[in-house]
Design a protein that fits this description.
CATH architecture of the largest domain: 4-Layer Sandwich
CATH class of the largest domain: Alpha Beta
Strand content: 5-15%
Largest sheet: 8 strands, mixed
Oligomer: single chain
CATH superfamily of the largest domain: Ribonuclease Z/Hydroxyacylglutathione hydrolase-like
Amino acid sequence: MAPRLLLPFAFAAAAVALALAYSGEIRDRAELALGRGMPAREAALARGFVLGQDEEVDAVTTEDFRRSGLAHLLAVSGQNVALLALLAMPLLAALGMPLRTRLLWVLGLIAVYVPLAGSGPSIQRAGIMGGLSLLALLAGRRASRFYALFVAAIVLLALDPGIAADVGWQLSFAAVLGILLLASSLRDSLVAVLGQGVGRRMLADGAALTIAATLATAPLIAFHFEAVSLTTLLANLLALPAVAPAMWLGMLAAGVGQVPGLPVEALNAVNSLLLAYIAQVAAWCGRPAWAYPHVQLGVGGLVGSYAAIAAVATLAIRFLLPRVRRLSGPSRQRANASRRTSVGALAALLVALVLLLLGAGAPSGAAPPAGLRVTVLDVGQGDAILLQPGDAPALLVDGGPPGEGLAAMLRAAGVERLGAAIVTHDQSDHAGGIRELFGAVPVGRLLYAASAGPTLAAASAAGVPARRLAAGAAVRSGRLRLEVLWPPPELLGQAREAEDPNALALVMHARWRDFTMLLTADAEAEATRLDPGPVDVLKVAHHGSDDAGLAGLLERTRPRLAVISAGAANPFGHPTPGTLATLAGHGVCVLRTDRDGSVAIAVGNHSTNLRIDIGAGSSQPCRSAAARR
């Protein structure tokens, strides 16, 4: 490295090391800054856009973004890294820095931003790819974008093979690959149609990126989620003028917010208008009934869809686009060479994409192919519920008391990493096992509701990002969605240490296709009085303690199966005779971990028939209940 680069390199490295050491505090200040002076919905969207924290986005807005094809804006990805670099480069240039010094600082910013944004698979891939590209430029060589993408994929797969099963990672990889293959030709054609000029070129750039990413991800979305948004291209084009400014303003607010006393309200006021516009576009394009039809796209359909895209793109690159450009002379020669390279890369890389995605779609461990497995683990007198969607990372709701060998149970279930660990409330019989899990099993993030001091401290020490949940938030992993029904945000804000933590425990409604399960933790129906509608399975609250509201809940939910998590011969008398009598009176089949051991519920493509496996190895006690609707 040239001597003149040593000093800025040292400063950049020191800044990165300092930022990484205090990433938790930086993230907390960024969260606060992104909420000041903004309405609640727009503040939640800003945190989603910049930090990838979509848990506080209300359910209606989240559904609008999903149905309109704008959900990618709520997940930090390569787009964020690119916009960060585009924002930083002119600011650093204004300080008089030469190009290589600017690149070093941008490399440092990327290294800081990845943990700040939660270190998810998509942002890891984007950070590695951005870093490789910058290092190639620093070395004085032309960066190979395809090389950077595939090195990023290989590095991440080597570090964590389970990442390949993450749907978000697959979509991110497909989107970037589509942009690399198609965006350049699309941009040139749009410029030829729209004409020259800075504004028109920017519009062509944005539209080309949007079209390329949409084409590359549409088959994969249909394959995994069995639905496709018919308005996604329109929605992305309408939102396009506001997306980059909203990202930039959010990043600036998060940066300014690191300095106590500096105001961010002006930035947020402008940003809230942009975010409100994007949310309105999502509503316009996502709410019509025809906008989000369900489709059945198997493996053959996935391969066929990408083959069709490859064929159409190849024909367009070879024959249609040159006519649009009306090239002649030397320009034609360069275009012909570019077409030959593009066509070869397109064919080879689309085949590689299909093979990668098919391999990544293969389930692992005990999760059923393209299905869901829910296991109420036998952890003694406590709760621990493992949810394994076959197409995405597993989620763990509570971890039981310490000393029950939770990590070994997860490994036996085929779980090598958790997308998230959710602590419903910070009592030892629910959170003790989670605290032991940190460092033993990779955990993507910790999610919690009320005060979780000891667990938060353990997560921070292990470098696991944490986020608070409240009613209205949602947690997703592939097709699996956990909607938080309780406690409401205002109740959390009024909580006092002396209050019963059971009353503030997270209650979640799990949905996978048409299968539903109510996870009540220790929040008894008498206190919550929730009405989630009919469910297939009920996890009985508070280990089966007396609950005056249970009869009403059973009438509202009409579960086919109830599961009680309790320890054998526990000193509390759980489950109580009264609770068992209420369940029997409503004709609900009951399984108990104190007698039946761990209870595993396997769900296929539909919930008409559930396969139930219990510790004793027999599914006879609830076979008829599991089969009826």
